[in-house]
Write a structure and sequence with these properties.
22% of the residues lie in helices and 38% in strands. By secondary structure, the chain is of the alpha+beta class. It folds into three domains: 1-30; 32-77, Rubrerythrin, domain 2 (Single Sheet); 83-125. A hairpin with a 6-residue loop joins strand 6 and strand 7 (93-96).
Length: 132
């Protein structure tokens, strides 16, 4: 009997925490004029006016321009020498820093790559370990 009461109490607590988080997010974006998805990771970002914004999830700098009729032009701000790369699994785009050599994980999925961005970009996907 006590286990059932604890189970019901725990479920109710989880339900109310989830509802609180949803309502908190709704209040946060309610005052924002434009909401768009980050082209790199798909995270929703809200802004009040055109500006340069950093995505809180993938830390990418984005230049947002308002075209009118609630249309936005979103461009990824790259530093000189950085390259854009698209994941072969989830199609997420991410940047490779200049003069980077090493293993980098896709920010959206578990796929890993070996990169060498010296004079030219060399990319080799690292094979996944088989589970069988």
């Amino acid at each position: 009997m006590i286990e059932q009461i604890l189970l019901i109490g725990g479920s109710a607590f989880t339900y109310f925490v989830t509802i609180y988080q949803i309502l908190k997010y709704a209040v946060e974006i309610q005052g924002l004029k434009y909401i768009f998805k980050c082209p790199m990771c798909g995270n929703e970002i809200g802004i009040e006016h055109a500006s340069i914004v950093k995505c809180p999830k993938c830390n990418t700098s984005l230049e947002v321009e308002v075209l009118g009729d609630n249309k936005l032009n979103v461009k990824v701000v790259q530093e000189k020498g950085e390259k854009l790369f698209k994941c072969i699994d989830c199609k997420t785009m991410f940047t490779i820093p200049k003069d980077y050599e090493g293993i980098m994980k896709c920010p959206n999925c578990p796929r890993r790559y070996y990169f060498r961005n010296k004079s030219d970009l060399i990319v080799k996907p690292i094979p996944r370990k088989k589970w069988w």
